[in-house]
Amino acid sequence: MDPLVDETWLAGELGRGLWQQIETIAETGSTNAVLGARARAGEASGQVLVSDYQSQGRGRFTRVWEAPPGKSVAISVLLRPPAVEPQRWLWLPLVAGLAVADGLRASTGMDTRLKWPNDVLIDGGKVCGILAERVAGAPPAVVIGMGINTLLSRDELPVPTATSLALAGAEVVPGEVVRDVLRALEHWYLSWVAGDDLREAYGARCDTMGREVRVVISETESVQGRAVGVDPDGRLLVRAGGEVRPFSAGDVWHLR
């Protein structure tokens, strides 16, 4: 079966900028796993792998992510950032969130928002999950995976809090979705590499800011307070108990 997105067309649309090798396939176990193996084998930066279906898709905290064939699109990229301070790598999931939010808005016109660090929402429902994985090596690499719900119906959603582009009323052309997300990722990634301060851009798109939230750190520990921003390293700042605390990881729940 041919993939929904034609790789020759996609390569022509993207040009020869950041994305040096583009491959589209109908099915795989996990696009992140494929590119992670390539990164460990020393392959070059700028690779893109797009699949219509993942049989072993993963989210954060080892959660399983799976959708019926042809109803979502999985995009993974392999990048080897130049010399960047280690703490700034915390920004990469947020950079990916910025890219998907902007790319979906460009390709569908939908009003996309973010939930820290990188859940992409439409009308409060999650339309895309992102997983960024660092791969040790010389130079080190990052593999960023983006799973976008394109054509899922209500009864195909993995959880009630999810949505899809089609359910939100978008006209979905998978190739245009992938193209515009990769264009936006190139823009925001290069801005991050250049050392730009992305806090204002991120805050303008993030629904977490200004909300009462609960940050779940573990099964036995959580913190409740008001999200007031992100710090220079991309950590969520929460005002709780008279102090502002930074969080680099954790599940965030928006409270009413």
What is the fold's blueprint, element by element?
Blueprint: H1 7-14, E1 21-25, H2 31-40, E2 47-51, E3 57-58, E4 64-65, E5 72-79, H3 92-108, E6 112-115, E7 119-122, E8 125-135, E9 141-149, H4 174-193, H5 199-205, E10 212-216, E11 222-230, E12 236-240, E13 243-247, E14 251-254
Parallel strand pairs: 1-2
Antiparallel strand pairs: 2-5, 3-4, 5-9, 6-7, 7-8, 8-9, 10-11, 10-14, 11-12, 12-13
How many strands appear in the DSSP assignment?
14
Shape: globular
Helix/strand class: alpha+beta
Runs in which pLDDT lies below 50 for 5 or more consecutive residues are: none
CATH superfamily of the largest domain: Bira Bifunctional Protein, Domain 2
CATH architecture annotation name of the largest domain: 2-Layer Sandwich
Q: How many structural units, i.e. domains?
A: 2
